[in-house]
Amino acid sequence: MTIVVIALLLCTFISGTQEQEGDIAIAGRLSSAFSPGLYSHLWEPYSSMECLPRHIHLSLGNTESSVMISCSLPRTENCGPDSVTPIVIVGRDSNHASPSTPEQIKITTKYGFTSTTNRAHYESRWIHHIEVLNLELGDHKYWYRIEVHANNKTDSVNRGSSHVVPDFATGDSDGGWQASSRLLRRQKGMKNNLQANLQPDTGKKEEEAIVASTSPRTFRTPPHVSKPVQIAIVGDLGQTTNSTKTMYHMMKTTRKRNQSKNDDIVTSLILCAGDMSYANSNQELWTNWFDVMEPLFSGTPLLVTGGNHEIECNADNLDIFVPYEKWFRMPNRLGEAIMEPVDPNYKKSLWNQSCSTPSAFLGRYDYGNAFYAVTHGLVRIITLSSYSQTLPGSRQEVWLNHELAQLNRTVTPWVIVMYHAPFYTTFRAHNDEIQSILMHKSMEILFLKYRVNIIVNGHDHAYMRTHPIVANLQDPENPTVDVTGKAPIHITVGAGGNREGHVKEYLNATMSEPWVAKRNKDEYGFGTLHVRNCTHAYWSWIRDGKTSKGFQDEVWFDNQYFL
Question: For the chain, what is the radius of gyration of the CA atoms?
Answer without folding.
Answer: 23
